[in-house]
Amino acid sequence: MDPRTLAYYQNHAADLTERYEAVDSPVARYFPLAFVAGGRVLDVGAGSGRDLAALLAAGFDGHGVEPTDEFRQAAVQCHPELAGRLVAGALPELGEPFGGGFDGVLCSAVLMHLAEADLFDAALALRRVLKPHGRLLLSVPSARDDVGADERDALGRLFKGYAAEELQLLFERLGFQRIGRWDNEDAQQRAGIRWTTLLLELQTGQGLRAVDQIEGILNRDRKVATYKFALFRALAEIATQEPRVARWLPNGKVAVPIDRIAERWLRYYWPLFASPHFIPQSQSEGAGSNQPVAFRAPMQALMQPFALQGEHGGLSAWQAAVGAGQLDAHLARLYRDALRSIAATIRSGPVTFAGGALESGRVFQFDGQSRSVLMSSDLWRELSLLGHWIVDAVIVRWAALTERFAHRQGISSGEVLPLLLARPDPDHVTAVARGIYLAAHADRCVWSGRRLGARNFVVDHAIPFSLWGNNDLWNLLPADADINARKSDKLPTAELLKTNQSHVLDNWRLTREAMPQAFDRQAAHLQGHELRMGKAWEGELFARLREAIELTALQRGIERWSGPVAAAA
User: Fold this and answer.
1) H or E segment at 568?
2) Final residue belonging to a domain, choices 398, 420, 442
3) Which of the residues 153, 316, 335, 406 has the least number of beta carbons within 10 Å of its own beta carbon?
4) Are the CB atoms for 91 and 1 separated by under 8 Å?
5) Is the pTM of this model over 0.85?
6) Are residues 390 and 454 in the same domain?
7) Are residues 152 and 226 in the same domain?
8) What is the pLDDT of residues 328-369, one digit of tens each?
9) What are all long-range contacts of 457-461, with beta carbons under 8 Å and residues at least 24 apart?
């Protein structure tokens, strides 16, 4: 604590005690919201004991620390029940008063008396005395008109102008989450002074937030292959595009099917393995070892029949074939072999070792019974909220790591990036969808109702291909060429979707009737389960489409499209 401020409180404890005790505790109203009933709560900077006494009166097991002898003596005189519950102590070196392990901490009107150099250590000290999921209730001035340019009042007390948002961010970086905020006038009715009270919860007993774990793994974990990048890319894409395939478990874990991860890996590595230049994806491959990545051989066997069918080793032809379910028995077996090898690599590689260099330890597990990768719900939440940023960061770092592996081959990250960004060409799949619609005599634009003919009939991606790279049948709808050009890479508004729901469903029925296995398999990825019998599937799938569009628009700031009338205006 600032020495001049501490000296003032020591010299004026008696007068200040009388002033504090003349008004009710301004934070006592929040105690029932902030702390678990009957919990152990530490009052840091107890002063006259007013707030600590209020804690005891409310049924909490309250204890306090106060740096000045004079305040501690006055507190016990005013509140005899505090005897044995107050000890000397101050931030930033709080130690472990009363053995630590508190359910809650009250830190009211204290942090503004700390210099900037002490603030981080003080936040760490408050964190150390809390149990995991413990609560921190703190208050600081949000406005004071009696502080000079030197950040001191006329009495010499230090009043640092820490904004509540600044403090919130500091504690969030230490694993807290804000769950409450209140802005109030001064309890002593002093003009020009206002207070902000924050309620924060410690989300984990470990030192890293989930997003920091991701960053730590990508930066600090030993990387002898590109697998950890591929795993985080797949999980981030699934979290943002197929969140319902994940299962929330009662133990605070989330399970993601390993087969869905493996399918994405196959698409990521296909352009790399199809390159005319050998692009190593492990340290041993880069060094010329005869031990290639485990799934390279089964993938190349699968890729061979498509090698001459277009760019990136026939990636688009492969996507179209597997999407339509048009694999003969031989190709189906090669596909299963490749996925089985990829899944084995995922289990034995990044799932086993990711996080090994962190203080928090490894972050994934594998559940053999459900064939799922398990992670904390906190980690899944970060992947869901920040997925598109994580994907971009991972791709750049993947390219840089590949350049390091490939230094003997003279391959740069600039050559690798286009391969990591490669997507199947949508033209073949949209041509298939167009053929289905024409054969079924679908002759109306889904967005405008315009009649469609051979010259103006195109297929629109409801969620633009540029955003998701998604060619699933549920995402492909008939549209007028001019209307499609107006929509471009925008997302339809909720109102436009609702207005045209019946048209969307009519077209889904056509594509499902023509390609039932492909449609159901692709829809299951969006819904998280197989389509239900009867017509219930239509409303549920439409709800999932609306949800996907709204979340994509909100998280990525995508422009909305209100339909042809608004576009023409």
Assistant:
1) helix 564-568
2) 420
3) 153
4) yes
5) no
6) no
7) no
8) 999 999 999 999 999 999 999 999 988 776 666 788 999 999
9) 457/481, 458/430, 458/434, 458/484, 459/430, 459/431, 459/433, 459/434, 460/484, 460/487, 461/426, 461/430
